[in-house]
């Protein structure tokens, strides 16, 4: 079963200024806010994703649409990321994967910290690494891995009405998941959960 896209949304609250985002993400207690809601991070396959925030006057989060030809999670919205290689830190792995997938210059991301780790439905222990980027940023997506790169307004993350809690049956098992509104893309599952952790870190309460 594939859930339907969440397309309807209310007008978002005003966006945080770039300096406000930097200040809030510098607080470790804010970054840990989503820990109580995260699944136990006991997956045996360690991986990391980069959660890139572009500091436009109205900041955005960079997301990708995975290529339809990939063997896993094909056609799904995701953050750049992948396995942590032996001897790598999660930060190094996330930056390396972003360079490979979307052509992000490894010198550009300024690491802000980590969001709570989680386990995906496929057993990956994922560490989300938040990074700040000063635009303009030139990207060159790898077509074999990424069908599209798009930006999601940080202001939408601040709306207390979102994300929406949904349920469905996947592989014969009932699951609950988060979904964020978007005009054309379906943002759900692990990516939506990580966006929720970021939202909790940035919201006033």
Supply database-style keywords:
21% helix, coenzyme A diphosphatase activity, metal-binding, eight-stranded mixed sheet, Nucleoside Triphosphate Pyrophosphohydrolase, 31% strand, 5 helices, hydrolase, CoAse, 205 residues, metal ion binding, single chain, alpha+beta
Shape: globular
Q: Kindly give the count of domains.
A: 1
Tell me the major beta sheet: 8 strands, mixed
In the CATH scheme, what's the topology name?
A: Nucleoside Triphosphate Pyrophosphohydrolase
Termini separation comes to 34 Å
CATH architecture: Alpha-Beta Complex
Q: Overall pLDDT, averaged?
A: 87
Number of discrete helical segments = 5
Low-confidence stretches: none
CATH homologous superfamily (4th level) name:
Nucleoside Triphosphate Pyrophosphohydrolase
Q: What series of H and E elements makes up the topology? A: HHEEEEHEEEEHEEEH
The structure class reads alpha+beta
Describe the structure in your own words:
- The protein contains 5 helices and 11 strands; from the N terminus they run ααββββαββββαβββα.
- It has a single domain (18-202), classed as Nucleoside Triphosphate Pyrophosphohydrolase (Alpha-Beta Complex), CATH 3.90.79.10.
- The chain has helices spanning 18-25, 28-31, 90-102, 154-157, 189-202, and strands at 45-54, 60-66, 77-78, 81-83, 110-114, 118-119, 124-133, 146-153, 164-170, 173-180, 187-188.
- With 205 residues, the protein is α+β, with helices and mostly antiparallel strands.
- The mean pLDDT is 87.
